[in-house]
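ugh ok fine here u go
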Amino acid sequence: MDYSKNLKELVKEKYGQIAKEAGDGCSSSCCGDDKVDYTIMSDDYTQMDGYSEDADLHLGCGLPTQFAQIKKGDTVVDLGSGAGNDCFIALSETGPTGSVIGIDMTEAMIEKARENVKKLGVNNVKFILGDIEAVPLEENTADVVVSNCVFNLVPDKKAAFEETYRILKKGGHFSISDIVLRGILPESLKNDAEMYAGCVAGAVQQDEYLSYIRDAGFQQIEIQKEKEIILPDEILKNYLTDAALDNFKKSNLGIFSITVFGRK
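structure:
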């Protein structure tokens, strides 16, 4: 329990700092002195309908809303919604007859997202402070669940997928982008808290990740997109000796962003 609590507090601290820096006109990669650039895995949202620059903190690792098959009138829930980027994209797809709910456990992110709601003048999106291991929503709430590089930040991924299943309506589905591993991560990376907050040390093997989804009860599971994540040497050198870095680069280890679909 203490391990999970400590990781959650780390995530709250780091992502709260990012939200506040963004409010000061800085990005997560240009402010502070953290060893990890949290933006290196992000994809480009700028051409998508509903895009809001103020809501895009470049913290994702995919474009789940692009693959989420959102229809007009849907209720969409974004787990780990941050400043609201995926929520506002989803809002453009579900339209005025639908609704979007963002869940995030970081107070500063919720505050930032609510500020963006006021700027955009929309009224069918709301942001709720909450933990995705125990989502503060009734069962059968959502037609669609999306999430972008967040389940890696959750110590209990099994519980998070069970909660995703619970809040979805029968026949509803999710599209989630996340980081998975193929091969064993070096212990110095795996154990480092900064790398956990950067979504790498928190990653599990792809087969294990997919097993959580199956065990939660989902069907029609498919990988909609994947891309390999190449960590720059200047980041890896913070955690690995020269010899370990050389071995890491020669290994069969792969760090991948995958976008996964599953239906209830």
